[in-house]
Amino acid sequence: MVSKKVKIVNATGLHLRPAGVLCETAMKYKSKITFTTDNNYEANAKSVLGVLGACVKSGEEIVITCEGEDENEALADMVSSIEGGLGE
User: Fold this and answer.
1) Element (H, E) at 24
2) pLDDT tens, position by position, 20-54
3) pTM for this structure?
């Protein structure tokens, strides 16, 4: 299991479009991928509804956790995607 804290940089936070990009990225991997918010809400990164339910705003930090056979690649890709603004 690997994890890393990352800051949400896109101006609108994790609304529908960036949540979809986040889920698409997560779905490429076999590993279980979750993230935890500052208020201890844990979401499945492969579920758009789970991501939207976290209500993550711009500037907030989340901890991404990946567990499985491709966890290192998954974590690197997830962090890169978030730091790149999730397509926005």
Assistant:
1) helix 16-27
2) 999 999 999 999 999 999 889 999 999 999 999 99
3) 0.91
